[in-house]
Amino acid sequence: MTSPAVNAEITPLQERLIDLIKTNGPISIADYMTDALGHPHEGYYMSSSPVGAEGDFITAPEISQIFGELIGLWLVQSWTDMGSPPAFNLVEIGPGRGALMADILRAARLRPEFVNAATIWLVETSGRLRHEQQRRLRTESAAIQWADAFSDVAPGPTLLVANELFDCLPIRQFIRTKTSWRERLVGLADDDQALAFTIDKTPAHPSLILPSVEETTAGDIFEICEGGQALTTEIAQYLIENSGRALIIDYGHLASGFGDTLQAVRDHAYWPPLSSPGRADITAHIDFEALGRAAFEAGAAVYGPITQGAFLERLGLSLRVERLCKTISPAEAHEIKQSAHRISAPSQMGEIFKAFCLSSPDLPAPAGFEGE
Prior knowledge:
The chain is an alpha/beta fold.
């Protein structure tokens, strides 16, 4: 069992969870993440502005405008591949502060017909972040609508982007004991005043798809993101019915494997995941193999994943940097090059982050994924 960090404060949500566990017993990690991130009053995304230098973490669109510009051009090409429909949905799930969509639209203005045809849907549950999105995008000419869930998006040809969304969807963890898989839960520390990990007393339900006990070792941890697989299936089915593509960019591993990837970040530093719930961002690595399997079983075409660095280079990152640096000062050019390095270099975000595309089967291979 673990104790909270020395500097951790006792949050109202932590007190609520302690009372809940005292009454009903330990809860799943998925339920813990759901409350810690999305509780209506005390959840992290509901009560803070997490993104950016003044928040707890920074995303690629906040680091370099080139990231969003290249994705914007990718979307324009995808719209062309779809036959340039005169009306379509441009959807972003988890749009943060609106930086990515602003950069997408700036690049897309090279094709005014694209912007004129688009109805923008921002799928966002945080009122605070919606306000920031509205402020940043207030001068855009395209029609913008907000939705609480992807299921609220109207039918029609659709292009969808999700950057660093799936990593914050709740996971369940299972640990291999001597004889069986058992779920790792969130319970109470010995003094009943702090949260701590514990293990379910009974084996995992047989309906769960877990690795064979005979082929694993005691202590192995296996993670399942049921919400991520369900959302992938929903997006895939929607694209098949309406035509279109979804570009998913996130960090994770190419193949299903073992290990504890649950982590929290606060003030741009690692934070104990069970300390001060509601005050830190909690994430887990994406199992891209599981997402690809869900999309494929739903009938969608699946491309990738490939590393973010490779994807951005295929879209012209180096050429864009070179062009931008021609007419600016050396200091400004250095900043642009450093930002581009941060989002693409293997030692930075370029290797651990992956790009992954779902498509209706009627469309050709998307730009950047040829041969995948």
